[in-house]
Amino acid sequence: MIPLYDPNPFAVLGLRPGADAQEVRTAYRTLVKRCHPDQFQDPQQQKAAQEKLIQLNLAYEAALKLASRHTVGFNLISQEEAKHFAQRLVDQGNLESALRQLNRADSKDADWYYLQGNILMALKQYETAHQSYREAVRRDPDNRKYREGALDAALAMKKARPLGTKILDWVKRK
User: Fold this and answer.
1) Nearest CA among 33, 14, 34, 39 for reference residue 24
2) Would you call 18 helix, strand, or coil by DSSP?
3) Which one, 112, 120, 138, 170, has least CB within 10 Å?
4) Residue 77's beta-bridge partner residues?
5) Distance between CA 55 and CA 6 in Å, rounded?
6) Residue 71: its pLDDT value, please?
7) Number of helical H runs and strand E runs in the chain
8) Distance CA 84, CA 56 (A)
9) pTM
């Protein structure tokens, strides 16, 4: 009996580790054609082919997932670089590009969330900015500037509410 799960799905498909999604698909199709149970008359061979097909399917799913991660992460840069480039774009007034640049970071720390909050505040996306500041505070609770950012965003959210909502709140309090 063939083990159904192999910890290296690329090896099962006969590929090098880190192969791209297209290579995974091609190898999978080729191997499925070779070992499909319908090609065999003998019940023992059909059963072995069925087990091999299951193993190939599992390896295909795992390898495709891994290959897709590599594709998504191809343009990631270090957190420090992302913050640096994003801050330069903010200084130039290009907020949307700054946000895109910031999102290329390979990891996120409290300062990353604070910078994201600043950009979102400038874009008048107060609720999302508030969430970013709160995450910065959660990661570094003693940082005063993170707390001030969260408070500023909360106040901006309150001010930005539509007039109808403000009137309803006032009526409810009376």
Assistant:
1) 14
2) coil
3) 170
4) 105
5) 8
6) 46
7) 9, 0
8) 44
9) 0.54
Contact 160, 126 (CB under 8 A): yes
Residue 20 in tokens: 């791209």
The C-alpha angle with vertex 60 and arms to 59 and 64, in degrees rounded to 5, equals 115
Split the chain (174 residues) into runs of 10 and give each run's mean pLDDT.
62 84 89 87 90 88 77 70 93 92 90 95 92 94 95 90 67 74
CB atoms near residue 155 (< 10 Å) = 12
Tokens 């997932």 sit on residue: 65
At 108, give phi and psi (nearest 5°): -135, 135
- C-alpha 6/C-alpha 66 separation (Å) is 14
* Strand (E) or helix (H) holding 30: helix 21-35
- Burial label for 21, CB within 10 Å (0-12, 13-18, 19+), is middle
By C-alpha distance, which of 26, 19, 28 is closest to 61? 28
What does the chain come to in residues? Answer: 174
Distance CA 60, CA 58 (A): 5
Q: Identify which of 116, 103, 113 has the alpha carbon closest to the alpha carbon of residue 77.
A: 103
* Residue 114 burial (CB count, 10 A): 23
